[in-house]
Amino acid sequence: MANENDKIKLPDEQLNLLAASFLPVIRKFYKTEQGKKLWEEHLKEQEAEKKEKEGAD
Predict the structure, then answer these.
(1) Do 39 and 30 form a contact (C-beta atoms < 8 A)?
(2) Angle at 38 (CA atoms; ends 16, 57), nearest 5 degrees
(3) pTM summary value
(4) Whose CA is closest to 18, among 10, 28, 7, 29?
(5) Which uninterrupted H or E stretch holds 14?
């Protein structure tokens, strides 16, 4: 587990540029069959967690 000393601090401008550079690759991945399958699995997990949480209330 990372501690405070392991974190990298970036100015907002650099962080935004880094995120912008990743975004096209991420979008391309989620348009593939593997990406679509992964997204569907994620949605199912989120729904199951939501139902579990609602049942605990």
Answers:
(1) yes
(2) 90
(3) 0.63
(4) 10
(5) helix 12-30
